[in-house]
Amino acid sequence: MKGRRPRPLDDGDSGEVRVSGHLNWAKPIGIKRVFCLIQSATITYMNIISNCTESAIKEAATSLINGNLVAFPTETVYGLGADARNEKAVARIYKVKGRPIDHPLIVHISSINNLHKWAKDIPEYAVKLARAFWPGPMTLILPRTNLAEDFITGGQDNVGIRVPAHAVALSLLKEFEAQGGLGVAAPSANRFGKVSPTCADDVKAELFDYLNSNDLILDGGSSLVGVESTIINCTNTIPTVLRPGAITSTMISDLLGIKIKEVTKNNSDRVRAPGLLESHYSPKAKVYLSGTPETGDGFIALSKFPTPPGVIRLASPATNEEYARTLYHGLRLADSKKLSKVFVIEPVGNDIAVAVCDRLQKAAGQILEQGKMC
C-alpha cells in the first residue's frame, strides 16, 4: 500500500482527549502527586508535592527539555520518559533500567498529527489503525524519518510510535511539545526484564536508587489496562502483531477487513521491539503455570477458583480485564512477601486474556504461541 502523511483529526490538536467508540482508556484521572528526588547534604529523600496542577505539568515538561527523566502514568503501565531527541538523556534511560543498548524504545507523541515527523511511508492501514485506536494502548512500528536516530531505534530502520490514552500523559506530552519538544521516549519504568509498574509507588520502589535529584515521578493513579501496549509491525503490506495487548487481533482484523499475521515461536519477525524476549516481566519469585501450590506459595487466578488451604492469594480478579489490571500488582506482592513460588491459573479467551497469557508465559520463562486462545 502506498504510504502518505495522515490528514489532521477532526478535532485537530485542541488538547481534548479523543476516544474512539468502545474505548474508555482516556477517561480523566486525577493527578494525585508528584514525587521529586531532592538532595539534602548526604541524604537523598523523596519530596511529595500534593495537587499536581498545570504548573506541575509544566515543571515536568521543562525537566524533560532540560535532559532529565520523568516517570509518568499511561493507561497501560508507567513509563520512564526522556526527550527522544536528547541522546544523553536517552542514554540515562538505558542506564537506569539496565537495558541493552540495542533494545529499541517507543516514542510517545500527543497526536496522530505529529506522526509524520517520526515516520515515513505510512501505509493506509496504519493510518486507519491510528484513527481507530489512538489515543490508546497500541504501538505502531513504521519506517523512521531522520528524526528517529539509532539511539532510539536500536540501529533499526523503523521506529515504534504511540499516543497514550491517559489524561496526565497527554497533558505532559502536549506541554512538552509546546516547549519545543518533539516526542518522549519511554519504556516501562522498571529495571529491565522485571515486572512493569502500574502505580507511582511501584516506580518509586523499583527505581529510587537509580534516579537522581532532578528526576520526577508523576502519580496519576493506577493504570486502567495494566499490561503493555499491543505492538503492530506496519512496515510490510500486511500488519503483524508482535506483542499482544488490549487492542486484540480480532479488533484489528475487524477494522481492516483482513486476516492479520501474528508472530509465533515458529514464525519469527526480524523486527526488534520491546517485550519480545523469551524471559521478561519476571518477579524474583518463580512463576509456575501448572502444578499444585503448597502451603506458603503464592496463587493468582480468577475469583471463581478457590484458594488452596495454606496458600497465599495474590490476586482474585473477576474478569479477564481485571486480571490484566491486577496481574503485575500480584506479582510484585509476591516479592514484597518474599515468596519463592507463585502458581497461576491462566485466563481463557481471545480477548485481553491473550496478552495476559503472553506476559505470564514470559514471566515463567516460556514462549506462548501467539494467537493461541489461552
What would you say this structure looks like, in words?
It is a single chain. With 374 residues, this protein is of the alpha/beta class. The chain folds into two domains: 1-276, DHBP synthase, CATH 3.90.870; 286-363, Rossmann fold. It has helices at residues 54-65, 87-97, 115-118, 124-133, 150-153, 167-178, 200-207, 249-256, 320-336, 353-363, and strands at 33-40, 43-50, 70-72, 79-83, 106-108, 138-143, 158-162, 184-185, 216-219, 230-233, 240-243, 261-262, 286-288, 298-300, 312-315, 341-344. The chain has a twelve-stranded mixed β-sheet, with helices on both faces. Strand 11 (240-243), helix 8 (249-256) and strand 12 (261-262) form a beta-alpha-beta unit. Helix 1 packs across helix 6. 50% of the residues are buried.
